[in-house]
Amino acid sequence: MSELIVMLDKQILKRIAVKKTSIVFGRHSKCDIALPDRTISNNHARITVVRDDCFLEDLQSTNGTYVNQQQIDRHLLMDGDIIALGKYQVVFRSVQGIAIQIKRLSIHPKLMDASYNAWLQVMDGSKSGYIIPLKAERLVLGNQTTGQVLIECSTQGQYIMSATGTMNNHRTRTLVAGDTLKVEETTFQFCLKEQDADINTVST
């Protein structure tokens, strides 16, 4: 089950289990999560649960909704995402397994778009051969409980991977074509368009 951790000035105010299919944030006292801050709209943002996924949507708020310091209209929440609403921060936590993430994120290679500059190829399991396009500025695989891989695209167009394991070891490096990474029991290969491969392996 997913959880929301509401924070103010780095202090945890409450932990809320995501049990409903719709959760509304706002200044109004009737909101599911009321946040008394004049910079927050009466009905500011909403989380909608669709099967195993949680989508965050801005409700045309005055000052916007931010996830990981990026303003969003609609966003698929991943474990560890930090939602900013006025002076409050809400951390999204999920123990969603890698199999569900692959099912949601991967596509058949025949559906690959020519605009994709980088992607991860699933190397084993039922989705072996499928790809996960790296279209957004960041991709998170796994969760903070079992180990997590974060891939971010830098302003120079490089893909930076940070890996955290169950022993809290933290590694950061720039990915090159052919690198492999392991999340739980699944191996992925990093691919760049028209690049030759150099093989390295990182696991969590």
From TrEMBL:
UniProt-listed SUPFAM superfamilies: SMAD/FHA domain (SSF49879)
InterPro entries attached to this UniProt entry: Cell_Proc_Reg/RNA_Proc, FHA_dom, SMAD_FHA_dom_sf
Domain FHA: 23-72
Signal peptide interval: none
Name this protein carries in UniProt: FHA domain-containing protein
